[in-house]
Amino acid sequence: MNIIASMKEKAKAIQGTVVLPEAWDVRTLAAARILLDEGTCKVILVGDPITVMQDAAANDITTEGFEVWAPDCHPDIEKFADYLFERRKAKGMSRDEAAELVRRPLYFGVSLVHFGIVGGMVAGAASTTADVLRVALHIVGVTPGLKTVSSSFIMVVPDTEEGDDRVFLFADCAVVPVPTAEQLADIAQSTALTCRQLLGEEPRVALLSFATRGSSEHELVDKVRQAKAILEERGIDFAVDGELQADAAIVPSIGERKAPDSPVAGKANVLIFPDLQSGNIGYKLVQRLAGAEAVGPVIQGLAAPVCDLSRGCSVEDIANTAVLVVLMSQR
Questions:
Q1: Residue from 114, 269, 276 nearest 194 by CA
Q2: Do 201 and 195 touch, CB atoms closer than 8 A?
Q3: In Å, how far from its chain's centre is CA 309?
Q4: What does residue 174 show for φ and ψ, rounded to 5 degrees?
Q5: What is the pLDDT of residue 297?
């Protein structure tokens, strides 16, 4: 069973609820149909019910089982506005502005997540990443104890030296361009949680660098060492090591030779890249040259499950990301 099929089965057992706020995009409607037909989760669409149903019919999408919520008609809309106002009034937001914003699909969708009415939200097919993350930060904020929102990709690499497919998490590949040592530590901590939530595996986290265990001295290496020290000070409950070169992190024979006493070397399943350039380049190279399946990005570090999409996403991308959100809702 491939990784997506496995995660779908887990999501079906949870029977969570996901809000898809971009109901004006036909891909969202088609994804909702897939999720309902497969029994993956319950779906809430945001918009005018009559318009959404007409749009679906015009695109030959069956609307049986669709739930469409109009923000103006929701009984908690004023509670949503009060909450947003309290969070943002110090930044100059007025109560009237808050009342207007929570009637917009993204703000309404994230409000449903924050108040536990739905398990999570998937958006970005028709909205920018900046818009999705800004709304999420305004309402749900960052996971307590962390300061950084980041991303990870699930990488399913076929036919490895060990003879089987291997599954890794790569981070950060989409959000933080030049992380500080503290941000690297946050990214590692968030990705470890993602590993447990989505893969059901214990994380073995490698903080990657161009050096392994003192083989080179450079300020870039120092930053990776500092990130490890920060994690150790936090008393984290997962295995972590660094600085490690990529081969030392994932190839058992090289890990044993370069870092024989490491709890991670040679068997890492979470790879934390030192910056966005290396992370983004790395995942695309593995995807294209090794034929790996890349699932994501998974947005992590938020206090509640909100996932972003590329505006070029497919219907399947939306449906698969909803599966991730259902699993992430089980914290």
A1: 269
A2: yes
A3: 10
A4: -145, -10
A5: 86
Phi/psi at 73 (nearest 5 deg)? -95, 0
**What is the separation of C-alpha 14 from the centre of its chain, rounded to a whole number of angstroms?**
18
Residues 137 and 154 in one domain: no
The tally of domains found in the chain comes to 2
DSSP 174: S
Please, are residues 136 and 34 in contact by the beta-carbon 8 Å criterion?
Answer: no
Tens digits of per-residue pLDDT, 233-280?
Answer: 999 999 999 999 999 999 999 999 999 999 999 999 999 999 999 999
Helix (H, G, I), strand (E, B) or coil at 324: helix
Q: Over the stretch 287-303, which tens digit does the pLDDT of each residue have?
A: 999 998 888 889 999 99
Q: Is the domain of 17 the same as that of 136? A: yes
Tell me, yes or no, whether 191 and 261 share the same domain. Answer: yes
Name the CA dihedral angle for 73, 79, 85, 86, rounded to a multiple of 10 degrees.
Answer: -170
Residues 155, 259, single domain; the answer is yes
What is the domain extent for residue 159? 150-295
Q: How far apart are CA 276 and CA 173, in angstroms?
A: 5
Q: What is the Cα 65 distance to its own chain's centre?
A: 27
296 touches 152 (CB < 8 A): yes
Q: Left if phi > 0, otherwise alpha if psi is -120 to 50, otherwise beta: which for 145? A: left
Backbone φ and ψ of 84, nearest 5° = -60, -40
Q: In terms of domains, do 221 and 306 share one?
A: no
